[in-house]
Amino acid sequence: MSYTPDKMTDKDKRKSLRKLAGAAGIAMTAQFSPALTGHVLGSDRPIKVGMQLHRTGIGASYGRWYERVAVATVKLINEEGGINGRPVELVIEDDGTDPRRGAEVIEKFATQHKTDVAYGTLFSHVVIGSSPRAGELKLPYYVVSEGYHVASGSLNRYVFQPGITDVRSQIASMAPWIATNLGKKITMIFPDYAFGHDHRNYFSIAIAEQGGKVLEMIPVPPTESSFTRYFPRIPRETEVLYHVLVGPGVLTFVKEMGQFFGTRDRPRIFGYIDSLEAVDFATPQLEFLQGTHFWEAFPRYAQPDQTRHDQYFRHQVGVDQNGASVSDSRDISAYSHMFGCWETLFIIKQAMETCGYSGPEDRQALIEATESLTGFAESRNHPQGSKVFNGKIHQCFGIQHISRVEDSRLKVVHTTSIEDGLYEPEADYTQMAL
Hints:
By secondary structure, the protein is of the alpha/beta class. The chain has 11 helices and 18 strands. The longest helix has 21 residues, at 335-355.
């Protein structure tokens, strides 16, 4: 499948994105021209979106791509008229992937930058650390995370996760395939913080419902740099090793796992792409992954049935058919997560246009408008696929993919339905006061 770009070259687009970033790299104001974009004269007071970015810390590899996607999305929105006829300004602050700094960033957005919303956070401990302040300041907070913390009802009415699915849903939809095709005796290795705890809690339940059992749970500090001391804890009768790690040590983890197991008499291996997000599968010492399986939300490698929406998204954010930067094939994207930035910004736009948002005085109306949304059809604005949105728990539900490593690439072997990941809600944010 080929894509014919517009007259602006990729070089021109990259130059434009650099211009958007600005010399300081802190605030990004997307450029616009009323004559070109349809903005109404006199309506140029921007809508400010505060992006809480993991520019440094253990989430930095994700942060780079979250930033690129957010800049590209804002640029497109502004080229097409902005939101309610007003340009969108992206204001970026680094939270260091740290929950305390995250709360400070939320306060800065509300009191110093005076942003209309906050947006973009990935790591669950930062979301959990930042959400109380967003609620206190009544600042709508649209996260691009995956933890069950939003849908559980443990946060507050100002926090939404509308553009990416949560771990509980992902696990529920994939557990039947894992039990049927890989095995039922599982050992789990997971990061020892909220995101990993969601895997621990909900996968053990989901696999039990399939007649399986988790034999051993091995928590690992998210800042760990060597993992050899954990592997001897894996019981010999393990049929499936389920791994989901994050942070700067993930490549070391996978290499050491290969050294420990080799390619013979090893358990079947199922991992979350988080363990190798933004890592090239052709990296030396990753050969042992041949034949293993990974969860992907959005397939990194363009598949034979690639949609035109995936094609368009790749072009706009500067990613090739292998999931690498078009300007540097060694720069691998965080493809299974970063689409959530694109989709969430379009959801913010949709909600603001639904309620006629004009400023902070309309934040309560914005909350209610977001809660009124029921789903998003697969489209240019939602390239990962169609989604159902539950306004009571502020969470969306979508499809998942299971991919197999073949010749240092990922080939999708199973795609779930939205229905596979639905669960009974345990909360109702709409009953909370605004």
